[in-house]
């Protein structure tokens, strides 16, 4: 939670200042600054705006108290900008292509840039001294990340890895600070998103203390289904299913909900046996949303 709280404070400070030191990003080849926008980047705001979000079945909205906060925390920053703001931001950005499992940055790297996901998914995590990985966040298309250490001038404290083939926009510290100073409405939108992330992590802590593992898994799947899916993800998808279109191992889920991998495996096997979920191409489909609704309702009682 501290990581995202510090991001919030960082951005609040940046929105009031328009100074900084110039940096350069030479980690990736073929990633030059966009002095003029390509056709792909000119269409970026339109494509982000048109991303179709899965709509939960009727009855879900009133049983997940943190749903709105979760959706706000994963809000699409880029599509929330005006045409002028989008043009100005993309003009100072560099588009980078990552393959699955490519590192965007590692703990200990210099913190030179802010990033926005153009397509795909970025996994943000920390590694303990014993080698245990703790997942902090998944960033989806349009989401902004990488601001926490930037303003303090410290090295990266976390790792960022492509969870699948991913494209990101990179903006230097100096350019992003200037952008915020000259576009105060965009700065306030970003602050709102980061504030929602702090609240979302607060809800997560409450869930760890009050919900059993089955309820935590159900809530995690439902929330990811609302923000990770567009149209049907594959030919094997059937009408009425909710797609959790994120590649999550059982260990990933265990890290996210504070449980052991064995417990997660057992619980998912039980849900599959009941016909509530199924595995499709390395991700999960919610076959019976009503079953998970019942679990969440029971947990909220």
Structure description:
With 301 residues, this protein is of the alpha+beta class. The chain has two domains: 2-205, Jelly Rolls (Sandwich); 211-300, Arc Repressor Mutant, subunit A, CATH 1.10.10. It contains twelve helices and eleven strands. It has helices spanning 2-14, 39-42, 44-49, 67-73, 77-80, 83-91, 173-182, 184-210, 213-228, 250-257, 261-273, 289-300, and strands at 94-98, 103-105, 113-119, 122-127, 133-139, 144-145, 159-162, 166-172, 242-244, 277-280, 283-286. A hairpin with a 5-residue loop joins strand 4 (122-127) and strand 5. The two termini are 27 Å apart.
**CATH fold-level assignment of the largest domain:** Jelly Rolls
Tally the structural domains: 2
**Helix-and-strand structural type:** alpha+beta
Tally of helical runs: 12
Task: Provide the spatial order of strands within the biggest beta sheet.
Answer: 1-8-3-6
Known CATH architecture of the largest domain:
Sandwich
- Uncertain ranges: 1-37, 42-55, 59-63
Please trace the helix and strand order, writing H or E for each element.
HHHHHHEEEEEEEEHHHEHHEEH
């Amino acid at each position: 939670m501290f990581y995202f709280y510090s991001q919030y404070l960082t951005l609040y400070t940046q929105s009031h200042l328009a100074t900084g030191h110039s940096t350069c990003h030479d980690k990736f080849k073929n990633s030059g600054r966009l002095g003029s926008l390509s056709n792909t980047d000119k269409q970026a705001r339109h494509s982000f705006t048109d991303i179709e979000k899965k709509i939960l079945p009727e009855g879900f909205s009133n049983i997940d108290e943190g749903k709105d906060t979760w959706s706000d925390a994963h809000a699409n920053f880029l599509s929330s900008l005006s045409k002028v703001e989008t043009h100005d931001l993309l003009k100072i950005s560099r588009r980078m292509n990552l393959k699955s499992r490519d590192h965007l940055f590692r703990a200990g790297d210099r913190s030179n840039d802010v990033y926005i996901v153009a397509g795909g998914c970025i996994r943000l995590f920390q590694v303990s001294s014993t080698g245990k990985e703790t997942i902090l966040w998944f960033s989806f298309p349009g989401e902004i990340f990488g601001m926490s250490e930037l303003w303090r001038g410290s090295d990266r404290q976390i790792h960022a890895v492509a969870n699948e083939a991913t494209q990101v926009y990179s903006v230097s510290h100096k350019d992003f600070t200037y952008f915020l100073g000259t576009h105060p409405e965009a700065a306030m939108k970003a602050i709102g998103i980061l504030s929602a992330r702090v609240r979302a992590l607060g809800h997560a802590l409450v869930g760890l203390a009050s919900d059993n593992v089955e309820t935590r898994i159900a809530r995690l799947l439902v929330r990811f289904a609302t923000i990770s899916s567009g149209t049907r993800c594959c030919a094997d998808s059937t009408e009425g299913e909710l797609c959790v279109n994120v590649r999550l191992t059982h260990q990933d889920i265990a890290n996210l909900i504070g449980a052991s991998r064995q417990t997660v495996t057992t619980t998912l096997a039980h849900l599959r046996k009941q016909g509530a979920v199924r595995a499709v191409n390395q991700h999960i489909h919610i076959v019976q949303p009503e079953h998970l609704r019942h679990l969440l309702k029971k947990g909220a009682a």
